[in-house]
Design brief:
- By secondary structure, the protein is mainly alpha-helical.
- The chain has helices spanning 3-24, 26-45, 48-53, 62-80, 82-94, 97-102, 110-136, 146-173, 177-183, 186-189, 208-212, 216-228, 235-258.
- The radius of gyration is 19 Å and the shape is elongated.
Length: 263
């Protein structure tokens, strides 16, 4: 077999291993799904009227706020899977399984590839399920074409891929699983500091640069432009640049830590 064939075979084996772990711990997957759904229902049915009345084009209409909110919730859904990824990687690094893998004739990079692909698949599945809930409570795309839907799905997948590599690096750098969970929390907090819930212009002046110059805000605005026809501007290229930069950084960070001596 060629080196590429061996790498693909070993990576698929590690992917199956990680998916089996997901099956054995369904409560973790359930928590990942419940959090964005609860936030969606809370902000629509409890705060929806107030939040939409405070927006320039909301007019007090809750349905308008549903459309505004959903793109941000979809990005938050991806962020929710990252803690589990960081914890899973840290457990592999600290419980001796990596040392055993290194004594076997397997492609070394397949361990990381298995974690990344498994996490991205979980993120995409979670986004689809949360999106179905959003449609059920009234979210409607405004004149989005099939190409725009594909672009939106591609952007969500790219965000999941980039942030997963970052979470893998966090798991590698953490001394134990508990620390990995804590260190990955900023990846969940950042969407709350973006334009997910209110426009950047409605935030205090001193905080607007923080919300505007972070990876989640351009990605959210790009999703809104694709699904709601509100215009993308430069946010599309900016969100792709953020994703590529974070993916490269996370990959280099994770692989450099992986090739050092196991803990």
């Amino acid at each position: 077999m060629s080196a590429l064939s061996l790498a693909l075979r070993d990576s698929s084996t590690m992917l199956r291993r990680n998916l089996l772990h997901v099956r054995r711990y369904p409560s973790l997957t359930l928590n990942v799904l419940l959090t964005p759904v609860v936030l969606l229902l809370l902000f629509v049915y409890i705060f929806g009227d107030v939040m939409s009345a405070g927006m320039a084009d909301g007019g007090g209409d809750r349905s308008a706020y549903v459309d505004y909110l959903v793109p941000g919730i979809l990005l938050m859904t991806i962020g929710g899977t990252l803690v589990g990824t960081a914890v899973s990687v840290s457990m592999d690094m600290t419980e001796g399984i990596i040392a055993r893998f290194r004594t076997m004739a397997i492609h070394r990079g397949s361990v990381l590839v298995g974690h990344v692909v498994s996490s991205v698949l979980q993120s995409v599945a979670s986004v689809v399920l949360v999106g179905a809930v959003a449609v059920a409570i009234g979210f409607r795309s405004r004149d989005a074409t099939a190409v725009e839907w594909l672009a939106a799905f591609g952007l969500l997948s790219l965000v999941a891929f980039a942030l997963t590599w970052l979470a893998v690096g966090v798991g590698m750098a953490s001394p134990n699983a508990e620390a990995a969970g804590n260190n990955a929390v900023p990846l969940i907090i950042l969407p709350f500091l973006s334009s997910a819930f209110v426009p950047v212009e409605a935030m205090p002046g001193w905080f607007q640069p923080v919300a505007a110059h972070q990876p989640f805000t351009p990605a959210i605005e790009t999703l809104r432009g694709l699904l709601l026809g509100s215009g993308i501007g430069g946010d599309g290229w900016l969100s792709v640049a953020w994703c590529l930069g974070l993916a490269v950084f996370g990959y280099l960070w994770a692989t450099s830590l992986f090739h050092r001596d196991p803990r």
